[in-house]
Amino acid sequence: MEITNEILNKAAALAPVIRMLALGDGRGIVRFLGDVEARGNNVLTLSATDDETVKAEYAAFREKNGVPDSVFAESVGAFKLIDTSSRTGRLAGKITIVTGGAQGFGKGIAEAMTEEGAYVAIADMNYDGALKTASELNGAIAVRANVSDEQSVADMVRDTVLQYGGLDVFVNNAGIVRAGSLEEMTKANFELVTSVNYTAYFLCVKYASAVMKIQRRIAPEKLFDIIEINSKSGLAGSNKNFAYAGSKFGGIGLTQSFAMELAPYGIKVNAVCPGNFLEGPLWTDPERGLLVQYLKAGKVPGAKTTADVLKFYESKVPLGRGCRTYDVARAIFYICEQDYETGQAVPVTGGQEMLN
Ligand SMILES: NC(=O)c1ccc[n+]([C@@H]2O[C@H](COP(=O)([O-])OP(=O)(O)OC[C@H]3O[C@@H](n4cnc5c(N)ncnc54)[C@H](O)[C@@H]3O)[C@@H](O)[C@H]2O)c1
User: Fold this and answer.
1) Are 62 and 115 members of one domain?
2) Which of 71, 79, 193, 215 could be a cystine partner for 243, CB 3.0 to 4.6 Å?
3) Residues 326-355: tens digit of each pLDDT
């Protein structure tokens, strides 16, 4: 049987149902194997793929034969149930996607989440970078994604679900900066920033929440997380950087609105607003880094070198240093562990931005 798009869609709709049923048995990953014979000692063969049939046949099989190793569904294919009970930490066994995970904050977030027991899909348009990061992290996978392209976002979520069987935490991290004054900013650059930082957040939430809704149908007590890596520039304007600040302010509006819409499905939606990651590649890249961009844009009066720009930004932080990836990761852990918070924007700025 040829593996068509339709079959892959069916498999991606069924895998989270199977995973939610198998989770209590320590089988935290459900991998779609395609149109192959299900292997293993204990194969559950489903007669249909609707929720009620799958639930009833899983329960009946388990009672008679114990936990299945694999599940086979006619006209879909085989799924392998993988034991993840040895995974420990604050995010033990959680399935996550981190967009823009090949470098910078996203890479650090992916590392920290893996250390806390999560399975991370590193989704990036820099696929080689994503592969490299994934190869360094226990259980991680790389997924090709351009978050401003709807089909690519749909594929990113589906690919992750076919490999892991679900999605518990979605980290919307991919983002870009094109700084410049009103005289300098072109419409093309303004729209580029908007498409990656703002429109893509909508696209990602559309497809990520669809998987979480399936999971919630089967496990109504479970909560899931969507976390936008926003910025302190989403809380206060940014001089000669309005394209970025506007996209991030918009992100807070989306976060609050998604939080309202998705609360009935057990999906919390929050933003983390980091201060400047002054040691990260976005700032330090010698050609396109912000230190260079801001020097050229004259954002720091009197600055003659990138070192002057760096010093200026450090001096603006009450706690005296730039934001680091573990600062952001800690905010993510807090959000995931907190069952009673949604629609919030958590500043992680060393005191540079304080909420009223
Ligand atoms: N660096 C900072 O000072 C800072 C401060 C506050 C917030 N943030 C936010 O943190 C997030 C990450 O920033 P960073 O500094 O790590 O950036 P970065 O440039 O170091 O990394 C961004 C990653 O996103 C990927 N990416 C870019 N466009 C993409 C697209 N269309 N589809 C898929 N992947 C794409 C890139 O390939 C790259 O791997 C962004 O949302 C940014 O706005 C950064």
Assistant:
1) no
2) 193
3) 999 999 999 999 999 999 999 999 999 999
